[in-house]
Amino acid sequence: MIATLFLPLLAQAAQPPVPEWNCADPQVQMEMNWCAGQEYEAADAALNAQWAVTAAVMKKRDAEWDALESSDKRPGFFRSLLEGQRGWLRYRDAQCRVDGYAARMGSLEPLLVATCKTRLTRLRTEELKALVEDPG
Questions:
Q1: What is the full DSSP assignment across 22-76?
Q2: Domains of the chain and any CATH numbers
Q3: Which residues contact 30 (CB under 8 A, 6 or more apart)?
Q4: Within 10 A of 2 (CB to CB), how many other CB atoms are there?
Q5: pTM of the model as a whole
Q6: Torsion of CA 116, 122, 128, 133, to 10 degrees
Q7: Cα–Cα distance measured from residue 30 to residue 79, given in angstroms and rounded to the nearest whole number
């Protein structure tokens, strides 16, 4: 829900470098690349908004857990979440770089990378939501 609020703002803020470009019907490769980049930026903004929500919930769970059980010395909810997120970012970037290599050094490569990043970022956003909605 929070991410939905940011999407219209992103669409307004990003003006195409060529006024005739239309992401509803891109016609040339540079236009497709730019539009895919904009779609990724929107997905990334939604991920960042969800991250803030999920991180706050994990910090709250840490505080509740610490009050109940102080003998468990394993990393807490937030620290584990942060470690996982850092690993996920490395995975996403490397995986999408490999996807882009299907058109390595060609004009299609940025589109492939951005499309991959958008897909994986949306999936990760859903994973972060699920951590808040279903702690089990």
A1: -TTS--SHHHHHHHHHHHHHHHHHHHHHHHHHHHHHHHHHHHHHHHH-SS--S--
A2: 29-133 (1.20.1270.180)
A3: 18, 107
A4: 11
A5: 0.84
A6: -150
A7: 40
pLDDT in tens, 11-37: 455 899 998 999 999 999 999 999 999
Spatial distance between the Cα atoms of 75 and 69, rounded to a whole number of angstroms: 13
The closest alpha carbon to 93, from 109, 122, 113, belongs to 113
CA dist 92 and 114 (Å) reads 11
- 105: alpha, beta or left? (left if phi > 0; alpha if psi -120 to 50): left
Q: Which element (helix H / strand E) includes 91?
A: helix 77-100
